[in-house]
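Supplementary Note 3. Input sequence used for the single-chain structure prediction.
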Amino acid sequence: MTRSGGDGPEAAARRKIDAALAASGWLVQDRDEMIVGAGRGVAVREFKLTAGHGYADYLLFVDDKAVGVLEAKPEGHTLTGVEPQAKKYSEGLPENLDPPLAPLPFLYISNGSETTLTNLLDPKPRSRSVFQVHRPETLADWLSADTLDAWVKALHDKRSGSYTAADDTRPSSFRSRLTAMPPLERGPLFPNQVRAIENLEHSLKQDKPRALIQMATGSGKTIMAVTSLYRLIKFGGARRALFLVDRTNLGEQAEMAFQDFRTPDTNRKFTELYNVQRLTSNTIGASTKVVITTIQRLYSMLKGLELNPSEEEETQFASEGPAPKQPLPVVYNAAYPPEYFDVIFIDECHRSIYSLWGQVVEYFDAHLIGLTATPAKDTFGFFKKNLVMEYSHEQAVADGVNVQFLVYKLRTKITEQGSTIVAGPDTMLRVRTRSGEKWMKPDEDIHYKGSDLDNRIVTPDQIRTLVRAFKERVRTEIFPGRENVPKTLVFAKDDQHAEDIVKIIREEFDEGNDFCQKITYKTTGSKPADLIRKFRTEFDPRIAVTVDMIATGTDIRPIEIVWFMRSVQSRVMFEQMKGRGVRVVDKTELQQVSRDATAKTHFVIVDSVEVTESDLNDTQPLERKRNVSLKDLLEHVAAGGTHPDVLSSLAARLARLDRECSDDERKAICDAAGGKTVAEIAGALVAAIDPDRHVAEARELFKLDQETEPKSEQIKKAAVALGKAATEPLAQRPALRKHLLSIQKTHEQIVDEISIDKLLLNKTGFSKEAKEHAMSVVASFEQYLADHKDEIEALKFFYSIPHRNRLHFKDIKALADAIKQPPRSWTPEKLWRAYELLQRDKVKGAGGKRLLTDIVSLVRFALHQDSDLRPYHEGVRERFAAWMTQQATKGRKFTDQQVRWLEMMRDHIATSVEMDIEDLDAAPFVQQGGRGKAVEVFGKTLPKVIKELNEVLVA
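The predicted structure, written as discrete structure tokens, is reproduced below.
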């Protein structure tokens, strides 16, 4: 190639190469003027080699010794075909130069715009693209005596035939050391984390430059990454690593993970062994091993700019702030050259910023490892489809790494249908503008759709209706029996929408500022990070409202409700937002912030915008047969059944049971299962319903090659075979099934998912599944009554017409206790809601807490003895009023004092089903003088009055 003078493609490339070498710290010299000791690194142009090898375009000297060549080509010239020429030059060095290695190990090829390196120190030298030639001190480090001796020995042994893998005890390059990593010590890691690290190290051993790890939210990606980095530094000799995030709060979260991590081999803290620096400025300490920073700050560092204030790291990619429109340019920075990091972990790599910011991480000559729960199509492309780990939410639930979710729907008429603002003569509208608020009088009617809400139109009453419905149901239906609102995360459309929601929640719950807080990029006063910490670790706030600041990555384990008050267009974003609730939390940690919680067995998605019914919802609840008892699920597999919905639901039940069990109970189950844990059984069930496994198993069963697609019948047979294998511990061990049922009776509390949406007039908002569930509950209840009519005293009363005996409270209590037992777990509230959903026009007194005596109304309605279902106390009052009228007709008169006592007796019967004379010695009668006063008021007629009331009011 010609010298750098002239205007052709060759000259243009030479000028760029010379400038790049100079920027990287090389002195560029002509051969006839060379002084190879003039600097740490010298690049000599047109160096003459031995006969037959021609001239090296650039011969690279480090510390007076030749170490590599750079072959230059014209701009636009492809580089792969030039590799033999570069290798030829590396072998043609005159002997009098006495290089430290021959052939020269570092072979560069460049056309001025693209540069590749082949490093002969690597185990399988392969050319790779680099931003530009590495700095001289970097090549010197790679050639240090520590690594050089081992490389020379290994090379000699390979040539002599005596080489074995064990000889490479001190590999010569980072990539070589990656081939000799010791086995992983599991320690406290989950099995999925172990598998991810081992798969990643296998990929690194194959020298794949990029790898993608997809693990369900909450399944331990960060701890997995910290463990991997520890191994890459200690055993792989990584000089420096980068943990890249896109939000400051995620960087703080990662820093805590490094600080808390203890090494599995020495039990020492990571930060005691290696310096970890989370950047708050643009300076990296000289001894830093792990750098944590946002990609925004990293870009500013490469550009030599100060990122100030730090909030810019937060707002640049938030939905409330501006985002770059074009890929951002990256130029060489001598302070942070391409070889500055050996490995880069990219957290939440699914986010779209990497289509704009890819060149920021591609600047570095490092292995790129992506971490995400929800990879998008471009994510797979960026990481060259090298998916080394795939771990779904369903598998994580079965393994006890995630908790499952239930969906509770809230709908309003305006949300679905929109509304119309009529332009009447007195109509005035408040309008928000950038400069403040103003009032306007509309000239014509304003029609808007539900999709316009909180964009073009704000309807406070729509928000208020949702919040009020949530308040009424959160402690009775969503999380029945809870005194405090579970930790709830609400997703709003934008900052103003979040502001409106916060105000209305505080008003409707009648609580102060601490109860509900807004956490968005526009939060001022307290730092968002401080609010997130309080939400995670303190009792208040109970409810946090965000837009997308807490949508991805943020670890708040005690969250039990995720409430969508905004729609989502991105499948990836929806799964990330939903994932805020999946994280497992220790009982102690949960009870520190939610004192009345027992264990986090599931979380609830409250859906106000039909987001769970859209095509975005990839992940479905693992439990698909919620109205089928655990006993019936076990009987299905015992009889040889392998229906996917049954296996899925059974896995969910077992995973939940495992989270509630004590260590002794887990051990007992493991013993009964022949050594298998509950988590292992559940995991096998989930794996058995994986469609990809079905196809692979079909190929194995029918001996098909990878190019042949199995037939549907073959896949079905394979699915059955997998199901049989997964259910074997349960199907073959009746004692195990009985043991699971006995433990479940003491632990399982079935949560009714039925959503009584009274917010939509003349229209139910219930799903088909909810109605089917209600039908199943009603049918099972009525069948139960028929099956036990001769066994339960209360049922004997209802089935005997006319009634032969009195109905007693103890009999009603016994019936209530019987139907409450697993697997039915029926309560008056659940039965009432089921009838209400199916026969709304015949059910009175909807919703709310039911009295024990309401079982009387339920039984009578189920047996068609009453035409409508109403609260028991209402029937008692009606019968009392009719009886009083009848007495007056007969000429029987009561004094005012007697009427007051009769009304107290009426109310007692309404709550206790019966009235005995001994009851007069208890409240509320005793406060009015008790039995003695009653005798004084009614005289000798008292026993007759009580008997009449029992006969008339209880019927």
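Residues 404-412+456-613 form a domain with the Rossmann fold fold (CATH 3.40.50.300). The longest helix spans residues 712-731.
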